[in-house]
Design a protein that fits this description.
The chain has 168 residues and is mostly beta strands. It has helices spanning 31-34, 74-78; strands at residues 7-17, 22-27, 39-44, 47-58, 63-68, 84-88, 107-110, 116-124, 131-134, 139-141, 147-151, 156-159. It contains two helices and twelve strands.
Length: 168
């Protein structure tokens, strides 16, 4: 069974395309193309299920059309509409930098106290200043100068917190 801590969200499936089972895939991270992945993981009713890809082609820089194995009709593709798509952390290239979406679920560790501050629930990139939004709603600046270490294996980020940030 695939565990949530073994994957990270890279997008969502859209509507079927054509009658032969292709489905649109709106992605935030093109890691599936960079590491030449054979499969993607879909959240089917809360269960993470691997789906092997027959082929895919890009429509835009954030949309692809994907044909999954054994999904051969428009009706079968329609069943996958709105499924979240995940990618296994084990297949990510150690040489390549992690995408922002890959950091969701990482634990944030205070560099000064070595204590866990929280877990990253989302990344707010809607402004010029990138922010980690923790599960409790706390916003932490995600500036390169504050981050001292990222450990993908432990799924944690060590950061120098600005004084008083947790008191806000």
């Amino acid at each position: 069974m695939i565990k949530p801590e073994e994957v990270y969200r890279i997008g969502r499936l859209g509507k079927p395309h054509g009658i032969h089972g292709e489905v649109s895939f709106l992605f935030d991270d093109d890691v599936f193309d960079r590491v030449d992945a054979e499969y993607l993981i879909l959240d089917i009713d809360g269960i993470l299920v691997p789906f092997f890809m027959e082929e895919y082609r890009f429509r835009t820089d954030s949309t692809a059309l994907v044909k999954f194995c054994d999904v051969d009709t428009q009706d079968r593709a329609r069943e996958l509409t709105n499924c979240d798509v995940y990618f296994p952390l084990a297949l990510t290239d150690d040489e390549a930098p992690l995408s922002l979406q890959a950091l969701v679920g990482f634990r944030l560790i205070d560099a000064q106290t070595a204590r866990q501050v929280g877990t990253i629930a989302s990344i707010d990139d809607s402004t010029a200043n990138l922010l980690f939004e923790l599960e409790d709603g706390t916003l932490i600046p995600a500036h390169d100068e504050l981050i001292t270490h990222i450990d993908p294996k432990k799924r944690q980020i060590t950061i120098h917190l600005p004084e008083g940030i947790l008191d806000l």
